[in-house]
Amino acid sequence: MTVRTYRWFGRSASVGAFMVPGLALWLPSGYSYGAALLLLAALASAPVWWRRPAPRAAWWLTAAFSCMAALWLLDVGATWGWGSMDRPVKYLLALPCIFYLMTFEPRASWLWMGMAVGAVGSGLVGIYQIGVEQLPRASGFTNAIQYGNLSMLLAVMSGLLLVVQWRRWVAWQRLLLVAAIVLGAVGSVLSQSRGGWLALVLLLPVCAWLLVRTTGQRRVYWGLCVLAIAAAALSQVPAVEQRVDEARQEMQVYQQRGDGRSSVGQRLAHWQLAWQMGWDRPFTGWGRAGYEQEKARRVAAGLAHPVVLEFGHAHNEVLDLFAKRGLPGVLLLFAFYGIPLVMFWPTARRIRDGAGKMDRESLSLCLVGVMLPLSYIGFGLTQVFLAHNSGNMFYLFMCPLVLAALHERRARIGCGRPF
């Protein structure tokens, strides 16, 4: 391979690092454009990366993705036709991209710009849909929950970049990141999705604790207080306040009357049923087809609320897998989230340079990597995030992009592999 060709594959990796988060919510299936570029580059460069040894982290990530692909393959059947192959195929196609990215490592700066542009674009799309198209809820080009949650995630990631690398950024970059934080949060508010804000309860304390633990700057806690005040202020926005009040009332109605027709009520009905079905077959689960059939049987027998027939999942990631695949499925989901969480956890080996000083770009990459599984855990409390294309694609390609960018950064500052 010539030097020019090698450089072209390297640039493609960096452009893909920008496109995956940068276009995710701007365009219909925006997250797919960067993924397609990375896949094409991975296939074209296969003779190069196939011969090179990959770090252990790449193999661990490959194992996590492969096990989940195998789990989704269990859902393949004649009932859903070729469409049932959609999810496992995406997981398998992401595998060559892992090894391509570990060979042609993208620069973190492209990833940073993509996150900021993605959050800004998300907010602008939401404002347009509410202000011009007069939609009741902003949904981007997916459903409102997926859009709102990913918009919030991009806002949190932009906030981390602003705080951790404040001295590095010049004025226009700081303004861009501030705009990303504000507009990403606006997109979430306009979507009226409550799951993203629930995930913040998990994300913000972890972010603050990790920042204090790694940097020793206790003023981060003051920043968390400011964010908490800002979140409280946003909760007073009429649309948000109304949604919170609705949730409270819907929970009371379900507890008093068992009414599952509301948004909260149907979730509680799904959770209760999935919990019962999971314990009925804790080691095998009911399978996707069996889950639907057993739901219908229990509704007909008066053992479950009819609202559960309107959805193909339990509105909770863990309970949905527990009902369909039993405890083994739940353990695979924990590994799917746990492996990246362990890989990106900001240890001294991963965030300090050869002289023992803090490298803030390495720290930023680790924190962004930690936020990926943590946010998905939070989102999965009230939504089966992996039942949607946007949730799968964003996670499948952001994890290897962050991992490869971290490797590139560690090599550039003269440190050994962090894994």
How do you describe this structure in short?
It is an enzyme of class 2 (transferase). The chain contains 17 helices and no strands.
What ranges have pLDDT less than 50 throughout 5 or more consecutive residues?
Answer: none
Helical proportion, percent range: over 70%
Total individual domains:
2
The average pLDDT score comes to 88
- SSE-based structural type: mainly alpha
How many DSSP H or I helices? 17
Please state the CA-atom Rg, rounded to the nearest Å.
Answer: 22 Å
**Quantity of strands, as a count:** 0
Strand content: under 5%
Largest sheet, in brief, is: none
Q: Please write the string of helix (H) and strand (E) elements.
A: HHHHHHHHHHHHHHHHH
Distance between the termini: 28 Å
Question: Which of globular, elongated, flat, extended, rod-shaped describes the shape?
Answer: globular
Keywords: Coiled coil, Glycosyltransferase, Ligase, Membrane, Transferase, Transmembrane, Transmembrane helix
Protein name: O-antigen ligase
Coiled coil: 230-257
InterPro entries: O-antigen_ligase-rel_domated, WaaL-like
